[in-house]
Write a structure and sequence with these properties.
Associates with collagen and binds to collagen fibrils. Pfam families: LRR_8 (PF13855), LRRCT (PF01463). It is found in: Secreted, Extracellular space, Extracellular matrix. Belongs to the small leucine-rich proteoglycan (SLRP) family. SLRP class IV subfamily. This protein is mainly beta. Among the domains are: 137 residues, Leucine-rich repeat, LRR (right-handed beta-alpha superhelix) (Alpha-Beta Horseshoe); 162 residues, Leucine-rich repeat, LRR (right-handed beta-alpha superhelix) (Alpha-Beta Horseshoe). It is 8% helix and 16% strand. The chain contains five helices and 45 strands. The strands form eleven sheets. The protein has a 14-stranded mixed beta sheet, with no helix packed on it. Strand 44, helix 4 and strand 45 form a beta-alpha-beta unit.
Length: 735
């Protein structure tokens, strides 16, 4: 009886699923409870998705903001994919009601800040993918509700600083991926709340010293990736990780390693030191469990100075991978093939060993919190938000690291406005009616990394305002009154990585505007009135990776200005009035460009050679909401993950036949629709029958059909298997 009742309930549920309407641009698989709305023009989460949907794939839409309670109508979701959806903000409570969700992919969006309640309600979530956003800062408590999370992917964001306890609440997290950020400051308690962590990826960052104090909190971690960081020296007992077995310090800048560097990591088995600047190594006596050391790519000097290390390798039975770079008689010889007597000294002076970095001074003693403000000694935060203050208060505790002064009518920031705050990392001055930043305003803020000045009345800046804040990496000047880029400002900011000047009134970029911004990686200029970019305007920013120019007044692609940007991977030109696109307009950045936004421009004509040089590196191309009737040949765009052609009035005649055939071969939903002729209007380019009268149509179809038949015939017949099929369109986390 119980079984029959269960079957009845299942049948009723499936019936309800089948009866539910499927949103117009989506495909619903009721049997597997999957809904796919790929690469569409959705600007809001559909509210008529079947309630019993388990897997929802919304990749390639344009949501911008995920509003509070956006998924309350689909409480049974287990998998949600929101990649490439142009999401900029997650409102507090955006995912509330998704208590069954185990997988959430928000990769390749434009999220800049994680708020405390942004991820509220996801208490079953196991994998959270935030790769490829522009997250600059994580508020404490952002992950506090994710008690089931095992994998957190924050690769390729804009993180510079990790405060203490930032990952609090992640009690079962096993893999934390922080690669390809710009981290160079880690709080000593940054990883203190991760008791189950087994793997930590910190490679491709800007760490200049091994963050031993922060890593010492990871008793259970077995693998640590620190490669591709500018670390020059590993000091004595620098690493105290009781369970560590695999340590990767490859492609760093190591010149020396102390003999007891790994003495407090007794389980260490594999040590990867490839591609460093090591000429010699001492016997690593403290690392008694080592079985392999990789030294390939180091300029090893196989003289008598290396003999103690060589003898230790034999005595400890450690396998070494590496070869001599000098002297000439031994060049190319592997370490394992050498004999001690061959390693001779001939009036060679030992290279001086780099000295260990100076110890950091301990935190200064705390002082009383200013009246009307709140100071948190546990998190080193101070806040006077929205207190109607006319002057910037003083006497904050000297160990304050985040200071929130938003929504106070200060009007000006005077010289020496923040005395004694040498440890301050993040300063929030949004909506403070600020018109002037006086010279010396930030003097003494030697640890400052983030400065938020959005929604003020600034129209100019002087370089002297930033005197004494050399570590500043993120400068946010969105929504001010600038009519030009504040030229000369950046000479005192050698570590500036990200510059926000969106939604100002800038009319052009001229040569010299960005002088001094040599390390700039991300430049945000959306929502200005830029009509012209001088050919040399971007020349100082040779490390630029992202250039966002959407919503300006450009009438042509600024090709000349793109020369000399060898690392540019993302270019946004959306919502500029560019009507025609000529030959080779992206050729200067063709070798590096991966993401190209050309949507909503009113584009009427694209030259057949406009995309010359572009090819397999392009991962996403946005061309939706334009007016052209054809596009260039893109058959060599073999790496495409996103191609958006919605709301483009394609003329489906024989000239479009190559595009029709190419789209049919793509495993992507492009949204391409015929705008003409009349008999094809509104039909998908993939499905239009107007191409059947074109010369060569039958030959092409026959070839495709025969190929498919041959392919099918070459496979042995199989019975249809029962059971679950893998979900289509859901990306797995890459290793």
């Amino acid at each position: 009886m119980g079984l029959s009742w269960g079957l009845l309930l299942l049948a009723a549920a499936l019936g309800a699923m089948a009866a539910a309407r499927c949103p117009a641009p989506c495909v619903c698989d009721n049997l597997r409870a999957h809904v796919l709305c790929l690469n569409g023009s959705l600007t809001a989460i559909p509210d008529i998705i079947p309630e019993l949907t388990r897997k929802l794939d919304l990749r390639g839409n344009s949501f911008m903001v995920i509003t509070a309670g956006a998924f309350l109508a689909t409480p049974y979701l287990t998998h949600l994919d929101l990649q490439h959806c142009k999401v900029e903000r997650l409102e507090e409570g955006a995912f509330r009601g998704l208590g069954r969700l185990v997988y959430l992919n928000l990769a390749s969006n434009s999220i800049a800040l994680l708020y405390q309640e942004s991820l509220d309600g996801l208490f079953s979530l196991q994998q959270l993918i935030l790769e490829g956003n522009r997250i600059e800062e994580i508020q404490l408590g952002a992950f506090g509700h994710l008690g089931s999370l095992t994998v957190l992917d924050l690769r390729a964001n804009a993180l510079v600083y990790l405060p203490d306890m930032v990952f609090q609440g992640l009690q079962v997290l096993r893999w934390l991926r922080l690669s390809h950020n710009a981290l160079h400051v880690l709080g000593s308690e940054a990883f203190a709340a991760l008791p189950a962590l087994r793997r930590l990826s910190l490679d491709h960052n800007e760490l200049q010293a091994l963050p031993g104090e922060a890593l010492a909190r990871l008793d259970g971690a077995t693998r640590l990736d620190l490669g591709h960081n500018p670390i020059t020296y590993v000091a004595e007992e620098a690493l105290a990780m009781a369970s560590l077995r695999h340590l990767f310090l490859d492609h760093a800048s190591l010149q020396d390693v102390a003999p007891d560097a790994f003495a407090r990591s007794p389980q260490l088995r594999i040590l990867d030191l490839r591609e460093n600047q090591l000429q010699r190594l001492p016997p690593l006596a403290g690392a008694g469990g080592l079985v392999r050391v990789s030294l390939d790519g180091n300029p090893l000097l196989c003289s008598c100075l290396l003999r103690p290390f060589h003898k230790w390798l034999a005595r400890a039975r450690v396998h070494a991978e590496g070869a001599c770079a000098a002297p000439p008689a031994l060049r190319g010889r592997s370490l394992n093939s050498l004999k001690s007597l061959e390693m001779r000294c001939s009036r060679l002076r030992p290279p001086p060993s780099p000295t260990a970095p100076p110890e950091q001074p301990s935190s200064a003693s705390s002082r009383q919190c200013p009246r009307g403000c709140v100071c948190s000694p546990d998190f080193h935060h101070g806040s006077c938000e929205n207190r109607d203050l006319r002057e910037i208060p003083r006497d904050f505790p000297e160990d304050t690291r985040l200071l929130d002064l938003r929504r106070n009518p200060f009007r000006t920031v005077p010289p020496d406005a923040f005395p004694g705050l040498k440890e301050l990392v993040s300063l929030h001055l949004q909506r403070c009616s600020i018109r002037v930043l006086h010279p010396g305003a930030l003097r003494g803020l030697e640890s400052l990394v983030y400065l938020y000045l959005t929604n003020n009345h600034l129209s100019t800046l002087v370089a002297a305002a930033f005197e004494g804040a050399p570590q500043l990496a993120y400068l946010d000047l969105d929504h001010n009154a600038f009519t030009h880029v504040p030229a000369g400002t950046f000479w005192l900011l050698p570590n500036l990585i990200s510059l926000h000047l969106q939604h100002n009134a800038i009319g052009e970029l001229v040569e010299g505007d960005l002088a001094g911004a040599r390390g700039l990686r991300w430049l945000y200029l959306a929502g200005n009135a830029i009509r012209h970019i001088a050919p040399a305007a971007l020349a100082p920013t040779k490390m630029l990776e992202k250039l966002q120019l959407e919503g300006n007044h450009l009438s042509e692609v600024p090709t000349a200005a793109l020369r000399g940007l060898p690392t540019l991977s993302e270019l946004k030109l959306s919502r500029n009035p560019i009507k025609h696109m000529g030959d080779s307009v992206f050729l200067p950045v063709a070798s590096s460009l991966q993401h190209l936004y050309l949507d909503n421009m009113g584009l009427e004509w694209i030259s057949p050679h406009a995309f010359t040089g572009l090819g397999p590196k392009i991962r996403s191309l946005y061309l939706e909401s334009n007016k052209m009737s054809n596009i260039p040949d893109m058959s060599n765009f073999t790496g495409l993950e996103i191609l958006n052609l919605h709301d483009v009035p394609f003329h489906c005649d024989c000239q479009l036949l190559p595009l029709h055939r190419w789209i049919n071969k793509l495993n992507l939903c492009t949204g391409a629709t015929c705008g003409s002729p009349a008999e094809a209007q509104g039909l998908k380019v993939k499905l239009s029958t107007t191409f059947q009268t074109c010369p060569g149509w039958g030959q092409g179809k026959t070839g495709e059909t025969n190929a498919n038949k041959t392919k099918a015939a070459s496979k042995p017949s199989k019975k249809k298997r029962s059971g679950k099929s893998p979900a289509r369109g859901f990306s797995k986390s890459r290793a």
